[in-house]
Amino acid sequence: MFNIPDIHRMNLSFTDAEYIMSKHSSMGITIIECMENLLSEWEQHCNGCYSFADDDEFFEFFQYEVNAFNVLYSEMKHLFRYGL
User: How far is residue 14's CA from residue 35's CA, in Å, rounded to a whole number?
Assistant: First the structure.
């Protein structure tokens, strides 16, 4: 899960979170793959591969996606034997 700064934290329902991620899954990938891709984006940011000035800028850019990720992960974590 992402440790989202309060300024970027949103109160999404599971349905809203699913909708946000499903917009990305329309490219022929599953919602789980969308979640894995977002984790990859975070790892790339942490490795300095992006031009975000800091974590706050990353969370501003991916605000909806990281909030949707946290909601989906919270609701489905019991399905992930080894985590995402």
Answer: 14
Q: Could you list the pLDDT tens digit for every one of the 84 residues in the chain?
A: 999 999 999 999 999 999 999 887 666 788 888 999 999 999 999 998 988 899 999 999 999 999 999 999 998 887 766 655
**Among 62, 20, 12, 57, which Cα is nearest to 38's?**
62
Do 73 and 35 contact (CB within 8 A), yes or no? yes
Token digits of residue 73: 């992960």
pTM: 0.86
Spatial contact of 45 and 60, defined as CB atoms under 8 Å apart: no
Hey, where are the domains in the chain? 10-79
CA atoms within 13 Å, Cβ hemisphere of 11: 0
User: Are 43 and 52 contacting, i.e. CB atoms less than 8 angstroms apart?
Assistant: no
